[in-house]
């Protein structure tokens, strides 16, 4: 459950009404505003904790709608050797690709874990690129609602 304490089960108990209300908000310009994230700390290992933001169920549904609309547009643009957080791709396939490259004669691997990577992406600098590929029928306001223009 997110900050509103509405669980998936609670949302499902009145599913059609909840989905109808969400759809009305999403269709009305400036009506949809995601709720603040519920912040929790989860163990990362070696005594460290990782901050985690848990969105409300309705916000997760809205994000999934956006992902379903945008994936067919942006997926073909991503690099073939990109395996993280991609549909139909996993770490086993990434390892197979690394082994394949090894057999082709490549001998260098860059292993990088950039701390707080997503939080440090210069979203404003990427904005012109996003706009170039963004489908006209989907309002950029949707992206701004979740991620902002910068």
TrEMBL record:
GO molecular function, a single term: RNA-directed DNA polymerase activity
Keywords associated with the record: Nucleotidyltransferase, RNA-directed DNA polymerase, Transferase
UniProt-listed InterPro entries: DNA/RNA_pol_sf (IPR043502), GrpII_Intron_Splice-Mob/Def (IPR051083), RT_dom (IPR000477)
Organism domain of life: Bacteria
Coiled coil residues, start to end: none
Presence of keyword Hydrolase: no
Reverse transcriptase domain residues: 42-131
Pfam families, A to Z: RVT_1
PANTHER family cross-referenced by the UniProt entry: NUCLEAR INTRON MATURASE 1, MITOCHONDRIAL-RELATED, PROTEIN YKFC
Family: Belongs to the bacterial reverse transcriptase family.
Protein name as it appears in the record: Reverse transcriptase (RNA-dependent DNA polymerase)
Organism: Candidatus Kentrum sp. SD
Phylogenetic classification of the source organism: Bacteria, Pseudomonadati, Pseudomonadota, Gammaproteobacteria, Candidatus Kentrum
